[in-house]
Specification:
Layout (H helix, E strand, L loop, with lengths): L1 H9 L4 H11 L5 H35 L2 H49 L3 H5 L3 H43 L1 H7 L3 H38 L1 H6 L3 H26 L2 H26 L4 H22 L1 H20 L21 E11 L2 E11 L4 E5 L6 H8 L7 E6 L2 E2 L5 H5 L2 E5 L9 H6 L7 H10 L3 H5 L18 H15 L3 E5 L7 H15 L3 E5 L11 E6 L2 E6 L1 H7 L2 H9 L10 H7 L1
Parallel strand pairs: 3-8, 3-9, 6-7, 7-8
Antiparallel strand pairs: 1-2, 1-4, 4-5, 9-10
Helix pairs in contact: 3-4, 3-6, 3-12, 4-6, 6-7, 6-8, 6-12, 6-13, 7-11, 8-10, 8-11, 8-13, 11-12, 17-19, 19-20, 20-23, 21-22
């Protein structure tokens, strides 16, 4: 029994430990404001108790003394009491609202900072809707719990104490009769707490699934419309809504199970008090004012008493949100900030070397198997091969989105595993197949490559990326909003904005991952011309499926099964008649296209 009690208090996820943490991390910083709110709650509770006490004087002055002037005076006093009570309630709620806003904002910042320190593997196993749910539910749950604590102690408990004093002053025995129903109610509440925790967690999970279904339907609205999946999406969403609805009904059924009991116990206590008070007034000669004052105090105390009896249920329901917040915040970051070391400075054209590199996304399923190659400084190295061979993974490993299992990756002689991720990534410009533009203007998205860039630098990068002309064709120019995910722009326009973003970064290493795979021929030519400026004089790794885009690369690596199976220039690989030649014959089936791709333009420059 003792061990169980001790573990309940020491378990980090236990209710006492969680409350203690919230008080120390959040409430302690605002203790002076909480004290002011607590003082106002005490003032409000005192006004309620005094008003209940004055009922005795009202009754006695009216029915026994027949003193109208005293009744009028008591009326003015009552108005003053309730005016003070109203002002104190306004003050305490305003103080608490300001504290709550600050605490919610602080916890939202903590959670967002934590997410920014997580690696790609962390997000691969989770849906983004989970983080949205944790951000909103968790951050607000902390303030809900703190509010419940301060209101339970400062408002309800103080009100009950003051009203209990009034009831005891009127009749101690009557007070004992009035509270006879409290112990049974507390026992029932204790048994419901565990079920409340389980249901509240299920509600959170169901809400996350509902957000997930809605988010995927909206983000994939093109596919939904194209494949007429509206009914299927409705079914998926309806299933999640029904899940949440079911858990909500269950919560309502369990949480409100105490209401009939409370009402019955209150009715029993009132009936016993009425019988006893009637006996005293009729047979004992007691003044009616004491009896009416007691009933007024008892009536005022009923709602605070119900809230306190339900406190444990409401508290444990809200603590579920706090737990999901702290689960995320407390987990060790997979990409901790490593800015303590000296800044990384690379040559204008860096040398990249992979030496016997091995990597797997999941245990027992290797993706890179002893890969070794060198990307010469200032040259273009292309990676080609079948899908799933590990080409894009090479770029991810170079960016340290994932850490290798064995081997070494060197950039200008620096082992990337010993470098700060942020320092390494500052030296790399990246353009992928699926361009992500942030909500904002074209200027904002280009400037993300170099925070604080001037308008002249932004325009210069756009011109080099062959984006300036179409940007100036918009009425808003560089201030034109790109829309969510850049959907206000065409695919080729988005790619050129991404290239301008990489150009303004002026990084010595460039990574291009299928940057033209989804474009038509005209857009591809424009993007190829833009990439020529991007690659010029920089060490470039290009992942491509369209072989005509990399035929003039300085070195072509054929990647298959997680290793380099062939290496050489285009002509050399064709003469060998190996895997590259097979890819070339299957894909092109004809002479070399007359236009020169990015590699040729870059080399000629």
């Amino acid at each position: 029994m003792f061990e169980r009690l001790r573990s309940w208090f020491t378990e980090p996820a236990g209710t006492p430990a969680l409350i203690r943490r919230m008080l120390s991390e959040n409430a302690a910083r605002y203790r002076h404001r909480y004290i002011a709110a607590f003082w106002l709650m005490g003032l409000s509770a005192a006004c309620t108790a005094v008003a209940a006490y004055l009922v005795r004087n009202f009754v006695n002055e009216t029915y026994l003394q027949r003193n109208f002037s005293a009744v009028v005076m008591l009326g003015f006093v009552t108005v003053g009491l309730f005016a003070i009570k109203g002002a104190s309630i306004y003050g305490q709620m305003l103080i608490l609202a300001r504290i709550n806003a600050r605490i919610v904002a602080d916890n939202q910042r903590r959670m967002f900072d934590k997410l920014m320190n997580e690696g790609m593997g962390f997000f691969a196993d989770r849906h983004s809707s989970e983080f949205i749910a944790r951000l909103t539910t968790g951050a607000n749950a902390v303030t809900t719990v703190l509010n419940m604590l301060i209101l339970a102690i400062g408002r309800d408990m103080l009100t009950l104490i003051f009203l209990a004093i009034v009831m005891v002053l009127q009749d101690p025995l009557l007070f004992v009769i009035g509270v006879v129903g409290v112990p049974p109610a507390m026992l029932v509440m204790r048994k419901l707490v565990r079920r409340i925790r389980v249901i509240a967690r299920s509600q959170f999970t169901g809400g996350t699934h509902m957000l997930e279904a809605m988010q995927e339907a909206l983000q994939g609205i093109r596919i939904v419309k194209a494949f007429t999946l509206e009914d299927e999406m409705r079914k998926r969403f309806e299933a999640t809504v029904s899940e949440v609805q079911h858990e909500t009904f269950k919560m309502a059924r369990v949480a409100n199970r105490t209401s009939p009991l409370m009402e019955m116990l209150a009715g029993t206590a009132i009936a016993m008090a009425l019988v006893y008070a009637g006996h005293r007034v009729i047979h004992g000669g007691a003044a009616a004012g004491e009896f009416v004052s007691f009933l007024a105090a008892f009536a005022f105390a009923f709602e605070p008493a119900k809230r306190l009896v339900r406190f444990n249920i409401d508290l444990n329901s809200s603590l579920v949100g706090a737990r999901v917040l702290y689960e995320l915040i407390d987990s060790p970051p997979s990409e901790p900030i490593e800015d303590a070391g000296p800044p990384l400075v690379l040559r204008p054209a860096a040398r990249i070397e992979f030496s016997d590199v091995r990597f797997a996304y999941r245990p027992g399923e290797p993706v890179i198997r002893g890969m070794s190659f060198v990307a010469d400084p200032g040259k273009i190295t292309a990676l080609v091969g079948p899908s799933g061979g590990g080409k894009s993974t090479v770029l991810s490993l170079l960016l340290r989105f994932y850490d290798i299992e064995s081997g070494t990756i060197l950039v200008d002689g620096h082992d990337v595993s010993r470098l700060s991720r942020r320092a390494l990534r500052r030296q790399i410009g990246y353009v992928g197949q699926h361009v992500h533009l942030f909500r904002g203007s074209i200027r904002d998205n280009i400037a993300f490559g170099k925070v604080g860039a001037s308008d002249e630098e932004i325009a210069a990068a756009a011109k080099a990326a062959h984006a300036h002309d179409f940007i100036m064709g918009f009425p808003g120019g560089y201030a034109t909003p790109v829309g969510e995910h850049g959907l206000q722009l065409s695919g080729g326009q988005r790619q050129r904005i991404a290239i301008a973003r990489a150009l303004i970064k002026d990084a010595p290493v460039i990574l291009l991952d299928e940057a033209t795979a989804a474009l038509d021929s005209e857009s591809e030519q424009q993007v190829q011309d833009a990439m020529a400026h991007l690659c010029e004089g920089r060490t470039t790794l290009v992942v491509a499926h369209r072989l005509h885009t990399i035929m003039h690369a300085d070195r072509i690596l054929v990647v298959e099964g997680g290793t380099v199976v062939e290496t050489g220039r285009h002509d050399e690989l064709l003469r060998k008649g190996g895997r590259y030649a097979t890819f070339y014959r299957v894909q092109l089936k004809g002479p070399v296209p007359p236009r020169e791709p990015v590699a040729a333009v870059a080399l000629s420059g």
